Automatic annotation (TrEMBL):
Family as reported in the entry's similarity comment: Belongs to the bacterial solute-binding protein 1 family.
CDD domains in the cross-refs: PBP2_UgpB
Signal peptide: 1-22
Protein name in the entry: ABC transporter substrate-binding protein
PANTHER family named in the record: MALTOSE-BINDING PERIPLASMIC PROTEIN, MALTOSE_MALTODEXTRIN-BINDING PERIPLASMIC PROTEIN
InterPro entries: SBP (IPR006059)
The keyword ATP-binding appears for this protein: no
Alphabetical keyword list: Signal, Transport
Keyword Transport: yes
């Protein structure tokens, strides 16, 4: 989900704001906007833009849109797939007054785009029985500002602990429930450089909840704060497991592209991954017998990351009624049930997750359990700058080139200088 190129610039944001200012001289009953166009009226065509997906996901979305058009014959949906540089294309089209009526927006990009005013507030457009309280709270809050909702999440994934059952049985160890246990179990599971107990992802998108586990904050007042001693203390054990214990490694150290592949190749007995890894492992490495569990606690506290995408409306759309009707169906109980029925994405509505049985699913239950306490990958308009600078310097500490505190201090200074300059 976050292997895409997230390109967000303040210059683009300023242009978006300026263009807007210049232009301003599950059930049938709960899937229709309260200001929806009358069915007997002239047919309206609206555009829905998103990035590409697997053939299976594309087929699911197509079915949801067919169902929607059957229920709303006066609304035709033109689905546009933007294959490359999605956010750059969306921003450019918004600036040019040619933005789609409805489009995908990742939580990572949401604060910056909401700030420009190009996203339509949705609260007043939704039907009275839309039941916004049914959404997992952290997911919905990622698309809110000052209590106003600008997007409704179409689905999500948290992170869970994936473990190789055969390796655990051979080592005679139990699935860890705390981070201290994970470190100890990793020692029994590691076999030199052939198999590591734990496959790691040394990037902020995966580490934010760990960085904040000791009470520190990665972002304060929309600026980098990861040189804080509490943030360093949260991340130090993660680095030490690789450098001191030598029971953890990142994928490229064993010739893998990502931790899911590292796990599937049996080069790591445990990894922390998202819902997307389940079908990947099942299809690519069918002989691997694996289980999932909630991410081990740190100092008695639960933590994980959540990645989510919402449907949002272009504030400049001339077809807001139809666009709102589409959003309310896609993120309503009926549309969401169809969209998430194959488990490629988890339902952001609690009732749909329960109806589909994901909350009790052997592999997905741990992911659903993490949603209420997850840290959503979104934190202010400057997170793209903060994210890039953190990753650039953190890897040097992870590889043992210099102390963690020193690397994070430099990363914070560079990030904040860049933010100030912008």
């Amino acid at each position: 989900m976050f292997n895409k190129k997230w390109l967000a610039t303040l210059g683009m944001t300023t242009l978006l704001a300026s263009s807007i200012l210049a232009g301003c001289s599950g059930e049938d009953k709960d899937t229709t906007s309260k200001d929806a166009p009358k069915e007997e009226g002239k047919q309206v065509e609206i555009t829905l833009a998103g990035w590409g997906s697997s053939p299976e996901e594309a087929a699911l979305l197509k079915q949801v849109l067919v169902d929607f058009e059957d229920k709303h014959p006066n609304i035709k949906v033109k689905h546009e797939v933007i294959a490359d540089q999605y956010m750059d294309v969306i921003k450019t089209r918004l600036i040019g007054g040619e933005g789609p009526d409805v489009f995908y927006l990742d939580a990572f990009e949401a604060p910056g785009l909401i700030e420009t005013g190009v996203i339509e507030p949705l609260d007043e457009h939704m039907p009275e029985d839309f039941d916004a309280a049914d959404f997992e709270a952290p997911l919905l809050e990622a698309f809110q500002k000052d209590g106003i909702t600008y997007g409704y999440p179409k689905g999500y994934s948290t992170l869970a602990l994936f473990y190789n059952k055969a390796m655990f049985a051979e080592a005679g160890v139990e699935v860890p429930t705390t981070w201290d246990e994970l470190r100890e179990v990793s020692k029994a599971l590691t076999k030199g450089t052939d198999v590591y107990g734990f496959g790691q992802n040394p990037e902020l998108a995966r580490l934010m909840f760990i960085a904040e586990s000791k009470g520190g904050e990665v972002v304060v007042d929309n600026k980098a704060n990861f040189a804080d001693s509490k943030v360093v203390a949260g991340l130090q054990p993660y680095v030490d497991q690789a450098l001191v214990d030598k029971t953890a490694a990142q994928p490229n150290q064993v010739g893998a592209g990502w931790t899911g592949e590292m796990f599937g190749q049996s080069k790591a007995a445990m990894v922390i991954e998202g819902n997307w890894a389940i079908p990947y492992i099942q299809n690519t490495f069918p002989d691997i017998d694996f289980g999932t569990a909630e991410v081990p606690t740190i100092d008695g506290k639960n933590g994980t990351m959540a990645f989510t995408v919402a449907y949002v409306m272009n504030a400049a759309s001339e077809k807001k009624e139809a666009a709102a009707t589409l959003i309310s169906y896609l993120t309503g109980k009926e549309g969401m049930e169809t969209w998430t029925s194959k488990g490629f994405e988890l339902p952001s509505r609690k009732s749909v997750a329960e109806k589909l049985g994901y909350d009790k699913d052997e592999l997905r239950g741990a992911l659903v359990a993490g949603a209420p306490y997850a840290t959503v990958w979104s934190d202010g308009t400057n997170l793209p700058i903060i994210f890039t600078n953190f990753n650039n310097q953190f890897v040097s500490a992870y590889l043992g080139d210099r102390p963690l505190a020193e690397a994070l201090k430099e990363a914070q200074e560079v990030a904040n200088k860049e933010i100030d300059n912008n």
